[in-house]
Amino acid sequence: MKKDKKSKSAIRQRRKMLPKKCMFCSENKEPHFSDPEVLRRYITERGKIIPRSRSGVCAKHQKTLGLSIKYARHLALLPFIER
Known about the structure:
It contains 5 helices and no strands.
């Protein structure tokens, strides 16, 4: 059986679209490990780092964001796993 094209478009429309504007570029800031409130915005409920396609962060800041989150976890500013 062939899948209906309308079902694919309906699925795409249901996804929550976030703005594709980098928050760090617009505010002229860099993600830093000592600011866990900002870093928590880019972590899921289970503790995973949100990908660039969902967060709307540019490639440059996504890389530093991931490193900052990992460093903050190592320093016990952020949890590894949310329970």
